[in-house]
Amino acid sequence: MGERHADDAKLYFETHVFVCDNRRPAGHERGCCASKGSEKIRDYMKVRVKELGIKGVRINQSGCLDRCELGPCAVLYPEGVWYRLEDFAAVDAVLEQHIIGQGRVAALLLPQ
User: Secondary structure of 37-69 in the HEC alphabet?
Assistant: First the structure.
């Protein structure tokens, strides 16, 4: 599952980042990424990608990714790597270490 085949079309984006922007009612037991600032996180990430001149990356808002209690969360494809992006420093770490450096930011990874 998830393997690419020789006859697959070239990826339109090398990395596609989905940032949860789900909004639940106040007091919901699972919380929501929107109430934890995910919109500002996503907007900051978009700006930083442009500032850093990173090509082949698309930052999108997402509906519920079903992990809001761990959020604000994001998933990066095609790898399927999940991160908690609680502040702008976390965004910078993911951009620099994961996207530019081709590594992982262990401290921000969501549990399996």
Answer: CHHHHHHHHHHHHHHCCCCCEEEEEECCCCCHH
